[in-house]
């Protein structure tokens, strides 16, 4: 049985209601303060105290307007609306921490590779190599319309565009500047050697880019790459590009099937099975005693909004769930939304979904004392063949502080969680090297002696 140490990200979003909808109404929740910089810097300090590997910041463009064909419930319950830019938070949080990584979500469907590559290189410099990018292609028609399109591109075409976006980005990050280009010699008045700075010339189906990358090589060059798609096309994309992948399943056995599929796909793409760190999303309610934890859970149920949870879910699958009676099976059919989720829930009823979303979310929930929570997490780890967790916030910051004070010591005592940070970049902490390995497709764009 595996004895891997648990990797841990805090799963958050620059908004009020993220995953566990309705919990913003709890008197101990601070999420309504999300427009305050101190809210984020306090959280970053807390997570670093708990030795979290990273803060993963989700994001969407567009609004959840599928349920009841309106944003009425979305606005009333603050279902990821309002939502602010995740990248803007990083510099402030990096300034009060030394080790915490930051995985930021950015939708490449509405970005241009040339300025976007500069933004992430800038953050990689300012964080000293602690930036990651969660690569998404979007799933909301509302975002496409806001960007001047009639609707989203078809699911697989979005991934075709993503493949090309990554190829352009790799050329900028890995190939435009050689490592030796930056000289910084005051005596010779030579800051950079122009002979070692090269323009890219990409002429593709989606992008035509000619020019020099505007940033000098950052500690990681290419940011740590996250991705979450588990459709057939999404797995092919992850197998080629992703270093960290988010996968969810109903049981550890089902999770192992998913992880084997993903790791095998990586091998078939010329990489190693261990080149991908796999995370699952989970919520934890913990207290010193089991009875106290169960009481806490029951009290939380009074604030959660199952209806807000399935309103969020409606947009995830592109189906207005309000149009179905409680016990009518839901047929999702073809969708341009999240394909893997849509297929998994076809045939469910609205009543069953409301029961599943009792805590305002469909994420797995672990409730118990520290030993019970650790047992459950390690069962997912070992039987599901995953590497760690994206820990959702139920109450912010209490969900994280409870976990740090109660669960982290239990995992450390079992030898399954670090007791100190290793030095280095986000990638080095997870993979023992600052830059992508030579077997990653980005490496083909690197300069080397005598070849290009």
TrEMBL record:
The name this protein goes by in its record: LLM class flavin-dependent oxidoreductase
Superkingdom of this protein's organism: Bacteria
NCBIfam families given in the database record: FMN_nitrolo
Matching SUPFAM superfamilies: Bacterial luciferase-like
Boundaries of every Luciferase-like domain copy: 23-382
Organism placement in taxonomy: Bacteria, Pseudomonadati, Pseudomonadota, Gammaproteobacteria, Enterobacterales
Similarity comment text for this entry: Belongs to the NtaA/SnaA/DszA monooxygenase family.
Any coiled-coil regions, as ranges: none
Molecular function via GO: monooxygenase activity; oxidoreductase activity, acting on paired donors, with incorporation or reduction of molecular oxygen
Gene3D superfamilies listed in its UniProt record: Luciferase-like domain
Keyword Oxidoreductase appears in the UniProt entry: yes
Residues annotated to bind FMN: 59, 105, 155, 159, 231
Organism: Candidatus Pantoea deserta
């Amino acid at each position: 049985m595996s004895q891997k140490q648990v990797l841990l990200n805090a799963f958050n979003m620059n908004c009020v209601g993220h995953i566990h909808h309705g919990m913003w109404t709890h008197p101990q929740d601070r999420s309504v303060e999300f427009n305050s910089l101190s809210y984020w810097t306090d959280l970053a300090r807390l997570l670093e105290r708990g030795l979290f590997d990273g803060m993963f910041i989700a994001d969407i463009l567009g609004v959840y307007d599928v349920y009841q064909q309106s944003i009425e419930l979305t606005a009333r319950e603050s279902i990821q609306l309002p939502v602010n830019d995740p990248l803007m938070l990083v510099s402030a949080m990096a300034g009060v921490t030394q080790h915490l990584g930051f995985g930021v979500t950015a939708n490449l469907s509405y970005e241009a590779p040339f300025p976007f590559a500069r933004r992430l290189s800038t953050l990689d410099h300012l964080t000293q190599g602690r930036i990651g990018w969660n690569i998404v292609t979007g799933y909301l028609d509302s975002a496409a319309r806001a960007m001047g399109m009639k609707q989203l591109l078809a699911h697989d075409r979005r991934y075709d565009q993503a493949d090309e976006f990554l190829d352009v980005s790799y050329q900028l990050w890995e190939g435009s500047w050689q490592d030796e280009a930056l000289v910084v010699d005051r005596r010779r008045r030579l800051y950079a050697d122009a002979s070692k700075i090269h323009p890219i010339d990409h002429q593709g189906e989606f992008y035509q880019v000619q020019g020099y990358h505007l940033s000098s090589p950052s500690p990681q060059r290419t940011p740590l790459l996250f991705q979450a798609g588990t459709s057939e096309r999404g797995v092919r994309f992850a197998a080629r590009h992703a270093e960290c992948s988010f996968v969810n399943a109903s049981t550890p056995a089902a999770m192992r099937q998913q992880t084997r599929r993903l790791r095998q796909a990586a091998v078939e793409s010329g990489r190693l099975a261990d080149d991908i760190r796999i995370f699952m999303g989970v919520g934890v309610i913990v207290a010193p005693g089991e009875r106290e934890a169960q009481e806490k859970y029951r009290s939380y149920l009074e604030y959660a909004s199952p209806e807000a949870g399935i309103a969020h879910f409606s947009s995830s699958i592109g189906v207005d769930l309000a149009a179905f009676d409680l016990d009518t099976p839901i047929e999702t059919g073809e969708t341009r939304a999240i394909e893997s989720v849509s297929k998994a829930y076809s045939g469910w009823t609205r009543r069953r979904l409301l029961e599943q979303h009792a805590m305002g979310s469909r994420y797995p929930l672990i409730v118990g004392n520290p030993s019970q929570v650790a047992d459950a997490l390690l069962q997912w780890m070992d039987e599901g063949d995953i590497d760690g967790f994206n820990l959702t916030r139920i109450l912010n910051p209490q969900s994280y502080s409870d976990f740090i004070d109660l669960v982290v010591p239990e995992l450390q005592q079992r030898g399954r969680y670090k007791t100190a940070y290793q030095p280095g970049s986000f990638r080095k902490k997870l993979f023992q090297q600052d830059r992508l390995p030579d077997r990653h497709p980005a490496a083909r764009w690197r300069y080397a002696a005598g070849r290009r």
